[in-house]
Amino acid sequence: MANFPNIERVDARAKVTGAPIYGADRTTPLHALLAVSTVTKGRLAAIDTARARAVPGIRLVATHEDLADLTSPGFLLSGGYGFQSFAPMLSDAIVHRGQPIALLVADTLEAAAEAASLVEAAYVEVPFSSKINSTGATIIPQAQSPLPQQIFRDTIAGDAAGAFGAAATTVDVTFHNPPQHQNPIELVATVAEWDGDDLTIHEGTQNSGALKFGIARMFGIEPDRVTVISPQVGGGFGQKNSLQMQTALVAWAARRLGAPVKMVVPRSQLFGNASFRPESRHRVRLGADAEGRLTAALYDVDAQSSRHDLFPLDYTNPAARLYGIPNFQGFQRIVQTDVQTPGYMRAPFEHMATFALDTAVDEMAAALGRDPVEYRMALDTDRDPVTGLPFSSRFLNACLSRGAEMFGWTGRNPEPRSMRAADGQLVGMGVGCGCYKAATAPAAASLRLDADGRVSVAVGVHEMGQGIRTALANAVAARLGVHPSAVSAVIGDTRGVPQHTTAGSWGTATAVPAVVEAADKLLEELGPDPLAAMARRGLESYETRIERRAPGQPEEPARALHVGRPAPWGPVYGEFVGFSYIAHFAEVLVEPSTCRIRVPRIVSVVDCGQVVSPRTAESQVKGGVVWGIGAALREATEVDERYGGFLNTDIAEYVIPVNADIGRNEVAFINEPDPRISASGVKGLGEVVMTGVAAAIANATWHATGRRLRDLPIRPEHLL
Fold first, then answer.
1. For the domain bounded by 139-180+276-438+575-719, which CATH number is listed?
2. Contact 77, 160 (CB under 8 A)
3. Average pLDDT score over residue span 458-463
4. Residue 46 has what pLDDT?
5. Is 170 exposed, middle or buried (0-12, 13-18, 19+ CB in 10 A)?
6. Which CATH code is given to the segment(s) 23-126+182-270?
7. Which has the closest alpha carbon to 578: 335, 433, 393?
8. Cβ neighbours of residue 452 under 8 Å, at least 6 residues apart?
9. How high is the pLDDT of residue 3?
């Protein structure tokens, strides 16, 4: 497939003029808020809502005693639809701090907020564990858990322990990552409205299919009675990839009151009621032979889950695929603590997996006296070390060589603390690599061509700001020979085709091949000049529909598309293994007295297959790099083990990068199509861009200061 033109974002003008309608933009007569638990674990002994009910304008106050007719939606990764199996307010149980204990609906938001502040509760408290090293945390080896082991088994290739024991040079290092929260601009919000027995939900979500079927399960109604409309999502990053805790509560209140109800969950409550990146600890041991060849990697992980769900870990799987290490052993343990169930936050495992492994690789290169870029290139492979299958495509070395040239790597003095800026700041240059599975998913797509040349496509995908409408328009326009402005897309809407969750970098790789296949079917049925064929037949419009599975995907798992469950396929497709790759080159400046760290520039080169929408793809990379800077130097959700829960529950105290933190960010693409993944040649992009950034910054910080820092985020006090 030829390169796609670098068109403007098709919805750019609408975005900047405020035209798109998000879920909470709709006006409603009634507003809902929640009162939440102030303890971490136990049960409600009593709840007093008398003062709340007396607030003028209050229409409804509900507690667990009122919602006995609802059931749990089940955990998304255990055959259900929710981000966790625990549904609040269905019993008096308290399983994590901040969980809802009362629902309040009023004529105004202010009245609902006042009433929520007046709810009083008494609790029976029991001991709890907040962190992975807390007393009472339960440790479960993942390989021995009830999770489906064909998916979540340990990652093993060769004899890593034997090769490590025989190694001439070894590295043994441990890393730590705190809990982190997504904090998208659009808060989690729901507008619910009943028309008789039919429910319509407006909500920004990455998974309108899960909302449709999950709400149907909770209410005991037919899924056809539920419509979910989500044309826009103001950021998700994994937080909105399943049914949230407030959706059913808002729908229940709307049915009870016979009027539409809206709830926008305050950010402080989201920290305790939505999924998050779990706390994790990583030990990496590397062994190299006398020639410096990396022969062994042992990678052990402990990561946090809740008491009520087993959130499966997948750190070792991508780590084993980053380089050609012939002997690899991954061992993962789930640590159950008293929090809500963690989830998938952008590059959920790969961010920390590549930070841990690639920082260790950098330490090995230093121990061997090898150039970090040259050493990584020497670790290249064209076959998957775990399965022995060929990679569908792999251009990591091309990313490294092109990035080194763009960055000016040859100007780097390899000696730590050897480079200074004109103002005396320490200068460091580092490299970091990352990878992410090239997954795809089943999809249905319909395409309608009107006699005036306009095209409408409907496909199972959601717009979270990544520019999927532009990618769809560019692909369909190229196939049908129309201008991209003539193509419109209906997405995130269960009234059209079945909706699959958009996550895991499979959105574009799934939706674009589907709409291209629909366009090809239309051309096959109408001929190379479809408008002329329609005119001859006297047709005002012509519609076609397709349904496709991922390459090598059996029919049975693909059917999950029709019941709102996730059904991604890959990276192992049977005959090959698919991954996207990236190389980042970072420069840091460290002020010698305060040890303040700045990142004046980063160069990123990506292997993501065919780039369908160059402009939005570049934006994706830059956004991921900014987040990588935040993850490396800023972001941590603080926990006080005395009280449980999370402390810095707003974006004043949960520190994220601002404009002053971001310097020059250069992006390039290898842009080599991967025809094994699909005819469109697209591999995933959205997640891989964040992998490897933290490693590049940490490695640059070592080069500037001579100190290896292995816990994130890296802060000035760690260097003092």
1. 3.30.365.10
2. no
3. 97
4. 98
5. middle
6. 3.30.365.10
7. 393
8. none
9. 79
Buried b (16+ CB within 10 A) or exposed e, 138-160: eebebeebebeeeebeebbbbeb
* Class level of CATH domain 439-563: alpha beta
Which residue from 436, 32, 444, 24 is spatially nearest to 209, judged by alpha carbons? Answer: 444
- Radius of gyration over every alpha carbon of the chain, rounded to an integer in angstroms: 26
Cβ atoms 102, 49 nearer than 8 A: yes
Q: Tens digit of pLDDT for each residue in 120-154? A: 999 999 999 999 999 999 999 999 998 876 778 89
Closest residue by Cα to residue 278 from 179, 174, 351, 138:
179
User: What is the band of 2 on the pLDDT scale with cuts at 50, 70, 90?
Assistant: low
Q: Cα dist. 82→78, 79, 198, 398 in Å?
A: 10, 10, 21, 41
Instruction: Look at residues 281, 276, 273 and name the one whose alpha carbon lies nearest to residue 132.
Output: 281
As a whole number of angstroms, the distance between CA 96 and CA 110 comes to 27
| CA separation for the pair 240, 234 (Å, rounded) | 10
Nearest CA among 323, 267, 255, 308 for reference residue 78: 308
68-103 residue pLDDT tens: 899 999 999 999 999 999 999 999 999 999 999 999
CA-to-CA distance for 562 and 499, rounded, in angstroms? 8
Domain ranges in the chain with CATH number 3.30.365.10: 23-126+182-270, 139-180+276-438+575-719, 439-563
CA nearest to 297, candidates 374, 379, 377: 379
Closest by CA position to 182, among listed 662, 635, 659: 635
The terminus-to-terminus CA distance of the chain in angstroms comes to 53
Question: In this structure, which amino acid lies at residue 241?
Answer: N
